[in-house]
Design goal:
The complex is a heterodimer of chains A (202) and B (149).
Chain A (H helix, E strand, L loop, with lengths): L4 H22 L8 E2 L10 E4 L4 E3 L7 E7 L6 H16 L6 E7 L7 H9 L5 E5 L2 H10 L4 E5 L6 E6 L2 E4 L5 E5 L5 H14 L2
Parallel strand pairs in A: 4-5, 5-6
Antiparallel strand pairs in A: 1-10, 2-3, 2-6, 4-9, 7-8, 9-10
Chain B lengths: L4 H16 L6 E9 L7 E9 L5 E7 L3 E12 L2 E6 L3 E3 L3 E5 L4 E8 L8 E8 L4 E9 L8
Parallel strand pairs in B: 1-10
Antiparallel strand pairs in B: 1-2, 2-7, 2-8, 3-6, 3-9, 4-5, 4-8, 9-10
Classes of the chains: A alpha+beta (202), B mainly beta (149).
């Protein structure tokens, strides 16, 4: 059968519109503006020392949305920028920020004692906690989230240079891995998704 | 005897002439600030440099009376990894701008010689390839600041 050309001009847009409608019915747009990692990353689990010198585990942060970030204090540029951004996000969350904890895990435990970490994280936000541990413990935690870091001897007196994963891992109140934020994600995107996670209550 | 002074005078005049054409003379600094960190940790220094000259101005190093050492650094991001490397110069293109800003080029300020607090003015001397210098007042900002103001 051969359709006249004019029929095609009518049919094609109709088919296209029908396709759009179907697609709209089948796929709810994902609510997240960050990258969902649900089911792709293990739950929050660790045993570390917090910045007051106390031994803590992931269970101590159950009930809170946790933002996990690997960094080190002798990092004058990117780590402070990330923490300053997270502080701005916490301010935008207002009272809901009380349901969130920023977990700053050092990848430089030799220099980052609990006391150093305490002053450091508190300079950024009252909801931030510095965590440290033995090099082996930290290495296995880093591996658990498929992050990485490396140390290189440095020509200067500062000892060595560290490169490290720049992502922020977001866990829900029950400690399930949910979202990944990268440096290209904006504050409004973080605020949007944290609102959803805080409100969902799970 | 007097004739011997002439080359010296000439050299002096030439030097004075070259000072006028110096790279630093064409560079204007703005938005200069330092992110103070506790416990005298190395701090990031940021500034925007505008060059109105017809030639590139090459920033080669910096120093400050308030810090033991200032280094020129670059942060970069590759495949989800952040790293920091030392660079030995940074060109401000002719009639162009370079921003030393978080997550990019920055000054690494090491070991403050005196306790610094937000609001303090910190003198930093920027040195260019031809030896010319540009003194700039950097504003000390708290750790969680996101910019110069």
């Amino acid at each position: 059968m051969k359709l006249p050309r004019s029929a095609l001009f009518v049919l094609l847009p109709l088919l296209f519109a029908a396709g759009l409608l179907l697609a709209g019915c089948q796929h709810e747009p994902p609510p997240w503006q960050l990258t969902s990692i649900r089911g792709h990353m293990p739950d929050l689990a660790f045993k570390l020392t917090d910045d007051s010198g106390k031994t803590v585990t992931a269970a101590d942060y159950k009930g809170k949305v946790a933002l996990l970030y690997f960094g080190y204090t002798h990092c004058p540029d990117v780590c402070p920028l990330t923490l300053a951004h997270l502080h701005a996000v916490m301010q935008k969350l207002g009272k809901q920020a009380d349901d969130v904890r920023i977990l700053f895990v050092t990848v430089d435990p030799a220099r980052d004692t609990p006391a150093v970490l305490h002053d450091y994280v508190r300079a950024f936000d009252s909801h931030a906690i510095g965590l440290t541990g033995s090099p082996g413990t930290i290495e296995s935690l880093v591996k658990r989230y498929r992050a990485s870091f490396s140390r290189e001897p440095d020509k200067n007196d500062s000892g060595y240079e560290v490169s490290h994963s720049s992502a922020i891992y977001v866990f829900d109140r029950s400690g399930k891995a949910r979202l990944l934020a990268t440096p290209s994600d904006t504050q409004p995107e973080l605020v949007h998704d944290l609102h959803l996670l805080i409100d969902s209550g799970d | 005897m007097k004739r011997h002074h002439f080359p010296l005078l000439l050299a002096g005049l030439l030097l004075a002439g070259s000072v006028h054409a110096a790279q630093a003379d064409h560079v204007k600094a703005s938005h200069a600030w330092i992110r103070l960190l506790p416990a005298n940790l190395p701090a990031g220094g940021y500034v925007t440099l505008d060059n109105d000259g017809v030639q590139a101005a090459r920033l080669t190093n910096a120093s400050s009376p308030d810090y033991a050492r200032v280094m020129l650094h670059q942060s970069s991001e590759h495949g989800g990894m952040s790293r920091m490397t030392m660079i030995d110069h940074l060109d401000v293109p002719a009639h162009g701008t370079v921003a030393l800003a978080p997550a990019g080029y920055h000054l690494m300020m090491m070991k403050a010689d005196r306790p610094l607090k937000p609001g303090d003015k910190i003198k930093v001397i920027l040195r260019f390839a031809d030896g010319s210098t540009l003194p700039v007042d950097f504003l000390a900002r708290p750790a969680n600041a996101t910019g110069a103001d």
